[in-house]
Automatic annotation (TrEMBL):
Gene3D superfamilies assigned to the protein according to its UniProt record, in alphabetical order: Tetratricopeptide repeat domain
UniProt source species: Aegilops tauschii subsp. strangulata (Goatgrass)
Lineage of the organism: Eukaryota, Viridiplantae, Streptophyta, Embryophyta, Tracheophyta
Swiss-Prot/TrEMBL keywords: Repeat, Transit peptide
PROP1-like PPR domain span: 29-140
PPR repeat ranges per the UniProt record: 7-41, 77-111
UniProt GO cellular component terms: mitochondrion
PANTHER family reported for this sequence: OS05G0145600 PROTEIN (PTHR47801:SF1)
Protein name as it appears in the record: PROP1-like PPR domain-containing protein
Length: 288
């Protein structure tokens, strides 16, 4: 039976429920049922659908809904483009992110701070450091400062760079140091309003490694974003020396470890008992 919803409001509720339940594979079915029932989708419907595809990393579905939106005479706005670019990053398709940027410019959609950061992190997902630096230059030219999410993207870009660069550990430490003087990206009050309504955290929008933990109370301390990304990079690269340097910087700033940092630090040194035991003792004393 298809008649589980009778109007656009009820269908929006169904779609929102599927998004909340993390069942993005059913969004296309719900949309098809909506059309079969003769219910006309509205802008909010498409925003819900595309947020759902972003959360589920379903790039093909995201572009399908964008095309459907256009066929119905609705032009995607800057927030919807942010979700699309973020989906490209989750799917490690930086070429599609660049095409979306060109599309925005062609349709006269004005970029904002969040858009630049989404682009930066989408390009970082495939290690395209040259294009990441180009986005940084564009931000500077637009009068925008770099914030912690930009530095997180720079670290991710060098971590994912292929072939691997010998100066990556040094770059990670350099970006962590530089981030201590970061300035907030210029933003309008409405910049994150839609994200809040859609239950999209900044960590999820920018594809940070803490994205799946952002809604867990007490699991991560959000002021430690740059350390989360840097220590996660150390764990992926297996760089114990860089980890030790980061933990030394961390201790000097009198921060307390959160669960994510402990998890990534242990992942990095799990097979090195000489480092692991002192690290666990240090972590235990910091939590006391």
């Amino acid at each position: 039976r298809r008649n589980y919803a009778n109007n656009v409001s009820e269908y929006n509720t169904v779609i929102g429920s599927l998004v909340q339940q993390r069942r993005p594979y059913l969004l296309r079915d719900a949309y098809d049922d909506m059309l079969l029932d003769g219910v006309q989708p509205v802008r909010d419907t498409f925003h819900n659908l595309i947020v759902g595809t972003m959360k589920g990393s379903r790039l093909q579905d995201a572009f399908y809904f964008r095309d459907q939106m256009r066929e119905m005479g609705l032009q995607p706005d800057v927030n919807l483009y942010n979700f699309l670019i973020s989906t490209c990053g989750k799917c490690k398709n930086s070429d599609a992110a660049i095409l979306l940027l060109e599309e925005m410019k062609a349709h006269g959609v004005k970029l904002k701070g969040e858009t630049y950061i989404c682009l930066l992190n989408a390009l970082a997902a495939t290690g395209r450091t040259d294009q990441v630096y180009a986005i940084v230059r564009d931000m500077t030219a637009a009068g925008l400062g770099l914030n912690k999410f930009c530095y997180a993207g720079l670290i991710t870009a060098f971590k994912n760079k292929t072939p691997a660069s010998e100066d990556t550990p040094a770059k990670i430490l350099e970006f962590v140091q530089q981030s201590k003087g970061w300035q907030y990206v210029e933003r309008v009050a409405n910049d994150s309003a839609e994200n809040i309504m859609m239950n999209v955290s900044e960590e999820e929008l920018y594809n940070l490694p803490t994205a799946e933990f952002a809604h867990r109370r007490g699991f991560i301390f959000k002021q430690l974003t740059i350390y989360h990304v840097a220590i996660h990079a150390c764990a992926d690269l297996g760089s114990k020396e860089t980890l030790e340097a980061l933990l030394d910087m961390f201790t000097k700033e009198n921060f307390n470890y959160d669960a994510f940092i402990v998890m990534q630090a242990v992942r990095c040194v799990i097979f090195d008992v000489e480092i692991l035991i002192p690290l666990l003792r240090c972590l235990k004393s910091s939590q006391a």
